User: Fold this.
Amino acid sequence: MRPLKIAEGIYDVGVKDWNIRDFHGYSTYMGTSYNAFLIVDDDKVVLIDTVKEPFTDQLMENIQKVIDPKKIDFIVSNHAEMDHSGALPKILHRIGADKPVYCSKMGERALSAHFNTKKINYQVVKPGTEMKLGKRTLSFIEARMLHWPDSMFTYIKEDGILFSSDAFGQHYASHENFDDEMGEGLFEHAKKYFANILLPFAPRILKLLESVEAMDLTLNMICPDHGILWRKHPEKIIQRYGEWARQETREKAIVIYDTMWNSTEKMAKEIVDGISYTGVEVIPMSVRNWHRSDVVTELLDAKALVVGSPTLNNGIFPTLCDVLSYIKGLKPCGKLGAAFGSYGWSGEAVKILNKELDIMGFERIDDGLRALYVPDEKALTEAYGYGVRIGKAIKSQG
Ligand code: FEO
Assistant:
C-alpha cells in the first residue's frame, strides 16, 4: 500500500515492481521496489529520489495522495542510477522545471550526462551540509561507490532516519514493508543484493561503516531505495554489512560445474560427498540450473570455490565462462580454489579453470583433477578423495 507513512510527515511514495525478473544480469525472482520518500515539514516539502521512468505516473499518484506535487520545494537525488532518477525530468516538468535538485558533485556530473538535453537546476551539496525544513534538518553523508561514485545518504537527525539509497536494500517486492514484519529470510535477500551489487566495493564499505560509526548517529530507521525498511533492528543489517564487507567465511564450499555426458557431473557428486565427509558444508551447483547471481550469493560466505567443466572445443563450457566472468567482476577474495573435469583427447578445461582461479587471486589447492571420458571406479574414488582433500584444506584454514 503506497503511500506508506513511515513517521509523522514522512512517506514512502515509491513503487513496487512485482514483475521484474532480471536486473542487468541479477535474477530478481521476487521483483523489487523503487522507494522514494516525501517529507512534508512546516517550511519545506522534499522528495528524496524518484523511481524508474515507466513508474512515473504511479509515483505522482502516490505523492498526490499526500500533497499537491507542485508544493514540493526541491528534490534530493541520493543516486543517479536510472532506477532512482529515471522519472526525474518528468517529475520536474510537473512540479516546476526550475525546482532545485540537490545532489553530490559526482551526482551532478552523472545526472547531467543522463539527461543532457534537459536544463535542470542542480545544486551540489557537500557532505555535512545541513538544511532546515522546519521542524527537521536534513544532512548529507558521502557514500561514494555505494553504489556509484555519486552515491550519498540523506539523514534527518530529529527522527534518526537514514535514507541510504542502494545500501542496505534488497531486490524484494512484498506486501510487508518493515523488517519486523519479516523473518530471518530478509537477510538472504539483503545478502544477495550485497553479493551481486556491492561486493566489488567491500573495502570502501568498511571505511564508510567506520566513518558512520564515528559520527555516532542515532539510527531509528534505515530506509533504502529497494525493498524492506529497517525500523526494528537497523543495527542488525549494519552488523551484517560489516561481516559481508570483511568477506567473513565459514567452513563451506560451493561446487559449480556443467557437464556434457554426465562425466563431469559424476566427478562433482563424488567431490561433494568427499567434502561433506569432512564435515564441511557443501552445495553442488549445476550452472545450468543455478543462476549466476545465486552462485555469487552462496560464494559470499564460502571458503572455497570448486569449479568443474568438461573440455569443449579446446576450452571450457560457455556456461562456465558466463559464471566465472560474473564472479571475477565482483572481486570476491580470500578463497581457496580447485578445478576438475572430464576430457576426451586434448583436455584443456582444467588448465583454463586454474588460470581463471589464479586471476581471481584464489589460493589453488593444486593443479586440479581430470578424468578420461567416463570416470571409472578408480577415477570416482580419486574424485571422492579429492573432495576429502578440499574439505581438509578448508578446515585447516579454520
Ligand atoms: Fe538501485 Fe545503483 O541503483
Observations:
- The chain has a mean pLDDT of 97.
- The pocket of MU-OXO-diiron is lined by residues 79, 81, 83-84, 147-148, 166, 225-226 (CB under 6 Å).
- The two ends are 47 Å apart (CA to CA).
